[in-house]
UniProtKB/TrEMBL annotation:
Lineage summary: Bacteria, Bacillati, Cyanobacteriota, Cyanophyceae, Synechococcales
Protein name: Possible reductase
Domain NADPH-dependent FMN reductase-like, chain residue ranges per copy: 8-148
GO cellular component: cytosol
InterPro entries: Flavoprotein-like_sf (IPR029039), FMN_Rdtase-like_dom (IPR005025), NAD(P)H-dep_reductase (IPR050712)
Family matches, as SUPFAM superfamilies: Flavoproteins
Recorded GO MF terms: FMN binding; oxidoreductase activity
Length: 174
Protein backbone atom coordinates (compact mmCIF):
# COMPACT_ATOMS: atom_id res chain seq x y z
CA UNK A 1 0.00 0.00 0.00
CA UNK A 2 1.37 3.41 -0.92
CA UNK A 3 1.87 6.08 1.69
CA UNK A 4 -0.58 8.98 1.61
CA UNK A 5 1.16 12.30 1.05
CA UNK A 6 0.47 15.51 2.95
CA UNK A 7 1.33 17.66 -0.05
CA UNK A 8 1.82 17.26 -3.76
CA UNK A 9 3.69 19.85 -5.77
CA UNK A 10 2.57 19.81 -9.39
CA UNK A 11 4.98 21.39 -11.85
CA UNK A 12 4.21 22.29 -15.45
CA UNK A 13 7.81 22.94 -16.48
CA UNK A 14 11.16 21.22 -16.58
CA UNK A 15 12.93 24.57 -16.12
CA UNK A 16 12.61 27.32 -13.52
CA UNK A 17 9.23 26.12 -12.23
CA UNK A 18 10.69 22.67 -11.58
CA UNK A 19 13.40 24.46 -9.56
CA UNK A 20 10.64 26.34 -7.72
CA UNK A 21 8.85 23.04 -7.05
CA UNK A 22 12.05 21.62 -5.58
CA UNK A 23 12.22 24.62 -3.21
CA UNK A 24 8.66 23.82 -2.07
CA UNK A 25 9.69 20.17 -1.61
CA UNK A 26 12.79 21.12 0.42
CA UNK A 27 10.77 23.40 2.69
CA UNK A 28 8.00 20.82 3.15
CA UNK A 29 10.63 18.21 4.07
CA UNK A 30 12.07 20.64 6.65
CA UNK A 31 8.55 20.90 8.07
CA UNK A 32 8.39 17.07 8.27
CA UNK A 33 5.65 16.78 5.66
CA UNK A 34 5.34 13.79 3.39
CA UNK A 35 5.57 15.46 -0.02
CA UNK A 36 6.42 14.77 -3.62
CA UNK A 37 6.68 16.50 -6.97
CA UNK A 38 4.46 15.54 -9.88
CA UNK A 39 6.32 16.73 -12.99
CA UNK A 40 3.78 16.96 -15.80
CA UNK A 41 6.60 17.11 -18.38
CA UNK A 42 7.42 13.47 -17.62
CA UNK A 43 3.93 12.19 -18.40
CA UNK A 44 2.93 10.70 -21.72
CA UNK A 45 -0.63 12.00 -21.97
CA UNK A 46 -2.21 12.71 -25.36
CA UNK A 47 -3.67 16.08 -26.19
CA UNK A 48 -7.31 15.95 -25.15
CA UNK A 49 -9.58 16.12 -28.18
CA UNK A 50 -13.35 15.72 -27.65
CA UNK A 51 -13.76 14.19 -31.15
CA UNK A 52 -11.44 11.37 -30.19
CA UNK A 53 -11.59 11.06 -26.42
CA UNK A 54 -14.45 10.32 -24.07
CA UNK A 55 -15.02 8.99 -20.58
CA UNK A 56 -14.70 5.50 -22.05
CA UNK A 57 -11.09 5.88 -23.22
CA UNK A 58 -9.28 7.81 -20.51
CA UNK A 59 -5.55 6.96 -20.37
CA UNK A 60 -4.61 4.67 -17.48
CA UNK A 61 -2.00 7.21 -16.38
CA UNK A 62 -4.79 9.78 -15.83
CA UNK A 63 -6.94 7.25 -13.95
CA UNK A 64 -4.04 6.37 -11.66
CA UNK A 65 -3.07 10.00 -11.06
CA UNK A 66 -6.65 10.98 -10.31
CA UNK A 67 -6.93 8.24 -7.67
CA UNK A 68 -3.68 9.45 -6.15
CA UNK A 69 -4.70 13.13 -6.19
CA UNK A 70 -8.01 12.32 -4.47
CA UNK A 71 -6.00 11.03 -1.49
CA UNK A 72 -3.76 14.09 -1.12
CA UNK A 73 -5.11 16.78 1.16
CA UNK A 74 -3.18 19.79 -0.24
CA UNK A 75 -1.63 20.78 -3.55
CA UNK A 76 0.80 23.40 -4.80
CA UNK A 77 0.85 24.16 -8.52
CA UNK A 78 4.01 25.73 -9.97
CA UNK A 79 3.63 26.79 -13.58
CA UNK A 80 5.16 29.23 -16.02
CA UNK A 81 3.14 31.84 -17.86
CA UNK A 82 2.54 30.95 -21.52
CA UNK A 83 1.30 33.70 -23.80
CA UNK A 84 -0.25 35.49 -20.84
CA UNK A 85 -2.08 32.44 -19.52
CA UNK A 86 -1.88 28.81 -18.37
CA UNK A 87 0.71 26.56 -20.05
CA UNK A 88 -0.77 23.99 -22.46
CA UNK A 89 0.59 21.00 -20.53
CA UNK A 90 -1.30 22.10 -17.40
CA UNK A 91 -4.51 22.93 -19.29
CA UNK A 92 -4.39 19.50 -20.94
CA UNK A 93 -3.86 17.78 -17.59
CA UNK A 94 -6.78 19.65 -16.01
CA UNK A 95 -8.98 18.84 -19.03
CA UNK A 96 -8.25 15.11 -18.70
CA UNK A 97 -8.88 15.15 -14.95
CA UNK A 98 -12.15 17.02 -15.36
CA UNK A 99 -13.64 14.63 -17.96
CA UNK A 100 -12.61 11.48 -16.13
CA UNK A 101 -15.65 11.27 -13.88
CA UNK A 102 -19.39 11.91 -13.74
CA UNK A 103 -18.85 15.41 -12.34
CA UNK A 104 -16.13 17.55 -13.93
CA UNK A 105 -15.52 19.24 -10.58
CA UNK A 106 -15.32 16.11 -8.42
CA UNK A 107 -11.52 16.06 -8.00
CA UNK A 108 -11.20 19.82 -7.50
CA UNK A 109 -14.28 20.54 -5.37
CA UNK A 110 -13.12 21.74 -1.95
CA UNK A 111 -9.45 21.02 -2.72
CA UNK A 112 -6.95 23.36 -0.98
CA UNK A 113 -4.46 24.57 -3.62
CA UNK A 114 -1.65 27.13 -3.58
CA UNK A 115 -0.34 28.60 -6.82
CA UNK A 116 3.14 29.81 -7.69
CA UNK A 117 5.19 30.83 -10.70
CA UNK A 118 8.67 31.64 -11.83
CA UNK A 119 8.06 33.70 -14.91
CA UNK A 120 10.33 35.18 -17.56
CA UNK A 121 7.73 37.93 -17.84
CA UNK A 122 5.32 39.38 -15.34
CA UNK A 123 3.58 36.12 -14.34
CA UNK A 124 0.48 37.80 -12.96
CA UNK A 125 -1.67 36.77 -15.94
CA UNK A 126 -0.90 33.10 -15.25
CA UNK A 127 -1.74 33.41 -11.56
CA UNK A 128 -4.97 35.25 -12.34
CA UNK A 129 -6.04 32.78 -15.07
CA UNK A 130 -5.16 29.74 -12.98
CA UNK A 131 -6.96 31.12 -9.93
CA UNK A 132 -10.10 31.76 -12.02
CA UNK A 133 -10.04 28.25 -13.47
CA UNK A 134 -9.41 26.50 -10.17
CA UNK A 135 -12.10 28.49 -8.36
CA UNK A 136 -14.53 27.65 -11.19
CA UNK A 137 -13.74 23.98 -10.58
CA UNK A 138 -14.60 24.45 -6.89
CA UNK A 139 -11.10 24.56 -5.40
CA UNK A 140 -10.12 26.56 -2.32
CA UNK A 141 -7.26 28.59 -3.77
CA UNK A 142 -5.01 30.07 -1.10
CA UNK A 143 -5.13 33.87 -1.10
CA UNK A 144 -1.34 34.14 -0.83
CA UNK A 145 0.51 33.27 -4.03
CA UNK A 146 4.14 33.29 -5.09
CA UNK A 147 5.32 35.30 -8.08
CA UNK A 148 9.04 35.12 -8.80
CA UNK A 149 11.15 36.06 -11.82
CA UNK A 150 14.70 36.87 -12.82
CA UNK A 151 14.31 40.30 -11.21
CA UNK A 152 12.40 38.92 -8.17
CA UNK A 153 14.20 35.84 -6.80
CA UNK A 154 12.39 32.97 -5.09
CA UNK A 155 11.77 33.86 -1.44
CA UNK A 156 11.95 30.79 0.81
CA UNK A 157 10.17 32.69 3.60
CA UNK A 158 7.19 33.13 1.27
CA UNK A 159 7.32 29.42 0.42
CA UNK A 160 7.25 28.53 4.12
CA UNK A 161 4.38 30.96 4.76
CA UNK A 162 2.38 29.48 1.87
CA UNK A 163 2.91 25.94 3.16
CA UNK A 164 1.98 26.98 6.72
CA UNK A 165 -1.20 28.64 5.47
CA UNK A 166 -2.03 25.62 3.32
CA UNK A 167 -1.62 23.37 6.36
CA UNK A 168 -4.39 25.30 8.10
CA UNK A 169 -6.80 24.44 5.30
CA UNK A 170 -8.83 21.24 5.17
CA UNK A 171 -10.33 19.65 2.11
CA UNK A 172 -14.04 20.41 2.13
CA UNK A 173 -16.32 17.41 2.02
CA UNK A 174 -18.76 17.91 -0.83
Amino acid sequence: MTETKDLIIITASCGKNLELSKKFLEKSNELKLSSEILDLTTLDIPLFNPRIHSKENIPNEIKDLKKKLFKIERWVICAPEYNGSIPPILSNFIAWLSISGDDFRNLFNGQPIAIATFSGGIGLELLTSLRIQLVHLGSQVLGRQLLSSYSKPIDTKTIEDIIQRLLQMKKLKT
